[in-house]
Amino acid sequence: MTDKDNLKANLKRRHFLLTAGIGGVGAAAAVVAVRSIGDTAPATGLTAKNEKGGYRMTEHIANYYRTARV
Amino acid sequence: MARMKFICDAERCIECNGCVTACKNEHEVPWGVNRRRVVTINDGVPGERSMSVACMHCSDAPCMAVCPVDCFYRTDEGVVLHDKDLCIGCGYCFYACPFGAPQFPQAGAFGLRGKMDKCTFCAGGPEKNASEDEFRKYGRNRLAEGKLPLCAEVCSTKALLGGDADVLADIYRQRVTTRGKGADIWGWSTAYGKPDAPARQPDAGGKS
Predict the structure, then answer these.
(1) Domain count, chain B
(2) What range does the domain containing B75 cover?
(3) Closest Cβ opposite residue A58 in set B77, B146, B161
(4) Cα gap A22→A28, rounded to integer Å
(5) How far is Cα of residue B108 from the mean position of the Cα atoms in its chain?
(6) Rg (Cα) of chain B, in Å, rounded?
(7) Any domain includes B69
(8) Is B171 a domain residue?
């Protein structure tokens, strides 16, 4: 194997490592984003208990209305 | 602000009593008290109709008007609730209610009445939401959990509807306008004809 071939192989390895690194950072960012969405989900009233305890349109109730239209 | 109401579609109710059972189970209602029941008119006769009945959370509730200790109150959503700590079990609300909603457990001998119990629209009572006291006195508070009364949610034919009156009115209006009348109600054209076919008219003349 010539020096030129060795250099190409090394570069390929570096590209692979670079891609894996970028992918990892992207995945971590996605996880953080999903978690932050999960944290804000109670604002829609789906999981958090409304302290006032009144009626509000939740996904559960919207689903009920949808099925009642059948 | 939404107004909470029940409506029962008598054309759909099959008298399964699923709503009654679900209510009793969800709120652990004591023996002898039925917050909801199914009433059948002309039972066994062709054309019989069944309806699930409970507190209708009247806009101008007679129970509220006659209560001598003023234990009833109405929530922002129009749900009529009462305070069991104030109730003296006089039974006036029972006499006033056209739906027979107020129930009285037999607390002991000599015809003593216990404190009144009735449908809460799964909205609990004056106690703190989801507290043990609230559950013991009034049952589960599903409205605070972002849900609707269980009786309506479990109804297999969606005969019993519960929730925002505006939405329910839309749903019911749509049903009335689409299902037509006569045999169409129970699906004659769906089962034996084409969906687009005009409804079959009954014979005009009888037997000669």
Answers:
(1) 1
(2) 4-179
(3) B146
(4) 10
(5) 28
(6) 20
(7) yes
(8) yes
- Residue B42 sits in a domain whose CATH number is 3.30.70.20
Inform me whether the C-beta atom of residue A68 falls under 8 Å from chain B C-beta atoms.
yes
Question: Hey, what are B55's tokens?
Answer: 């507190």
B188 within domain boundaries = no
Which one of B77, B129, B167 has the shortest CB-CB distance to A49? B129
Nearest-by-Cβ selection for A65 from B76, B123, B163: B163
Domain-located, residue B106: yes
**Cross-chain residue pair A55–B143, CB shorter than 8 Å:** yes
Cβ contact (<8 Å) for A61 and B124? no
| CB contact at 8 A, B160 and B6 | yes
The torsion of the CA quartet A35, A38, A43, A44, rounded to 10 degrees, works out to 150
Is the CB of A54 less than 8 angstroms away from the CB of B148? no
Per-residue pLDDT of chain B (208 residues; tens, 9 = 90+): 899 999 999 989 999 999 999 999 999 998 889 999 999 999 998 889 999 999 999 999 999 999 999 999 999 999 999 999 999 999 999 999 999 999 998 766 666 778 999 999 999 999 999 899 999 999 999 999 999 999 999 999 999 999 999 999 999 999 888 876 665 655 555 555 555 555 555 555 444 4
